[in-house]
Amino acid sequence: MDRPTLYIANKNYSSWSFRPWMALTAAGIDFEEVLIPFDYSGGNPDIKAVSPTGRVPLLKHGALTIWESLAIIEYVAELYPDAGLLPRDRTERALARSVSMEMLSSFRALRSACPMNIRRPKGRIALPDGIDADISRIETIWRDLLQQSGGPFLFGTFSGADAMFAPVVNRFDIYDLVSRSDTLAYMVTMKAHPAWRKWEEAARAEPWIVPEDEV
Questions:
Q1: Rounded to an integer, what distance in angstroms lies between the CA atom of residue 35 and that of residue 15?
Q2: Rounded to whole angstroms, how far apart are CA atoms 75 and 73?
Q3: pTM score, whole prediction
C-alpha cells in the first residue's frame, strides 16, 4: 500500500492539523509529514501549490487528495480498519461521527476567543458571550461518552473522536476554562498520550510566532 503524505501547518497553532496528525500517529500508521508554516499576511504560496482550498491539513495518497480534518480521519479509518480510529460497534460509530461533526461545525465562540497555542503559559482571559455555552456542551459530550464507555477515552480506547477534540483539550488547559474533575481527568489522559507528547515537543521547538494567535 502506498504511504500517505499528510501536509500540516505550525504545530504550535494549527488545531486543524493537530487532529489528523494525532489520529494517524496514535493509530501507528506510517505516513510522511510535510509541514508548511502559516503566513497570515498573504497566505503561504507553498500551501496553495498543494492544496485546492489553500489550506491544510491535506492528505495525499497515490493520485487521491483529501482535505478537511474529519474527512482525512474517516478515509484513513476505512483504509486501516484495524487501527481503531472508528469504534467497531455500529451505534458507537454513529455517535463518534455525530460528536466529531459537531466539533467540526460548532463552538465558534470558543474557537475565536481562545486559539490553540501549545506554548502559551496557562492563564485566564476575559471571555466574550457564548463561550460558557460552548464549554458546557463540550463537557456534556465528554461526560456522557466517558460514562457510557467507562473511559479513559471517549469510546474506551483512543479513536478519531478523541483526535477531533484534542485542540479543545489544549484550549481548556491553557486558558484555564474548566474545573470539573471528570473533565480534568480526561484532559490528563489525552495529554499523556505518546502522540500528544510528540506533537507538543515539536510545537515547543518551533521558531515561528503568529501574533494573531498570541492571546
A1: 14
A2: 5
A3: 0.96
pLDDT tens digit at each of 215 positions of the chain = 689 999 999 999 999 999 999 999 999 999 999 999 987 666 788 898 899 999 999 999 999 999 999 999 999 999 999 999 999 999 999 999 999 999 999 999 999 999 999 999 999 999 999 999 999 999 999 999 999 999 999 999 999 999 999 999 999 999 999 999 999 999 999 999 999 999 999 999 999 999 989 99
Cα distance between residue 155 and residue 204, in whole Å: 29
User: Nearest to residue 109, comparing CAs of 139, 126, 129, 136?
Assistant: 129
* Total residues found in the chain within this entry: 215
CA–CA distance, 203 with 200 (Å, rounded to integer) = 5
Residues 6 or more apart from 186 whose CB is under 8 A from it?
A: 142, 146, 151, 152, 153, 154, 169
Closest to 57 measured CA to CA, from 13, 87, 95: 13
- Rounded CA gap, 122 and 215, in Å? 11
Neighbour order of strands in the sheet with 5-8: 32-35, 5-8, 58-61, 64-67
Question: Phi and psi (nearest 5°) for 38?
Answer: -60, 150
